[in-house]
Amino acid sequence: MTVDNVELTKEVLAHAENYVRAFNSGDAAAVDRLYTEDAVSVWEKGKPVSGAERRAGLAEYLAQRPVMKIEILESYVISDTALLAVDWTIDIPTAQGTERQQGIGVDVLRRGADGQWRFAVDNPYGTDI
C-alpha cells in the first residue's frame, strides 16, 4: 500500500493542529508524546535542548498557561520526513495583562514505525533568534 504525498501532507498538518490543541490544554505529557524520543528544541539561539531538559522546560513553560495560534506557511513532505514553516503567536497571561510572543518557526517531523508523525526538531524562532 502506498500513501501519496497529498495524504502525507494532510497527516502532517493534522499533527500540527493536534500539537496546538495539546499545547493549549497545558498537558505537558500530551505535548511530549508528539515529539520523537530524541527530539531537540531550540528555544534559545545556540542552546538546543533534548531529553529530560527539553521535557522539564516544556512543562515549566506550559505551567504559565500559554495559548498558541498557528498558520502553516509552508510544508514539504517526502517519505518519512516533513518540514514545516510556521507563523505562530503565543499569549501568556500575566498580572499586568498578556505577554505576546511570536515568530516564524521551522519544524522537522519524522514518521515513526507506528505511522505517527512526531517532531524531531522544534525551532520556534527559525533563524531569527
Automatic annotation (TrEMBL):
Pfam families: DUF4440. It comes from Streptomyces muensis. Residues 13-118 form the DUF4440 domain. Gene3D superfamilies: 3.10.450.50. SUPFAM superfamilies: NTF2-like (SSF54427). This is Nuclear transport factor 2 family protein. Coiled coil: none annotated. InterPro entries: DUF4440, NTF2-like_dom_sf, Steroid_delta5-4_isomerase.
